[in-house]
């Protein structure tokens, strides 16, 4: 319903300073990133991770990281702005109109309701929570597309 997410891995002197995500749907958990550096020269043995790539043994300095949501930081680097500066497509044309967003949200709710009815069981608390998330997050996307500047707690 909203823009395609953009990511940035910020390096300084070859060291990861931050991982950022922009336009991530708030109803989805943030993805996990794996930072892999194959340069293990001068690395302590406990810093090196051993893993397989297919049938090949590999080793690198690795760490897992959850990105920081760009929209939650004041004066942060915007992955979309950097992509635009590089001349990369930021897929502005893929942004749905508010009407299309509202229609998509309504259809998602109808589809979930039909699925609940097909089970021929009373809806559970999880069913109601899922419906709430679909309706609330979809409505927030529509409001933002219409220019609402309210802080929705992203």
Walk me through the structure.
The structure is a single chain. By secondary structure, the protein is an alpha+beta fold. The chain folds into two domains: 6-93, no CATH class; 96-145. The chain is 32% helix and 25% strand. It has three helices and six strands, in the order E-E-E-E-E-E-H-H-H. It has helices at residues 79-85, 98-118, 125-145, and strands at 6-12, 15-22, 33-37, 48-53, 56-65, 68-69. The strands form two sheets. Strands 1-2-6 form a three-stranded mixed sheet, with no helix packed on it. Strands 3-5-4 form a three-stranded antiparallel sheet, with no helix packed on it.
Number of helices: 3
- Could you estimate the helical fraction of the residues in percent? 25-40%
Give me the count of strands. 6
Could you state the order of secondary-structure elements as H and E? Answer: EEEEEEHHH
In percent terms, what proportion of residues is strand?
Answer: 15-25%
The shape, in one word, is extended
Average pLDDT taken over every residue:
84
Summarize the SSE layout with pairings.
Elements: E1 6-12, E2 15-22, E3 33-37, E4 48-53, E5 56-65, E6 68-69, H1 79-85, H2 98-118, H3 125-145
Parallel strand pairs: 2-6
Antiparallel strand pairs: 1-2, 3-5, 4-5
Helix pairs in contact: 2-3
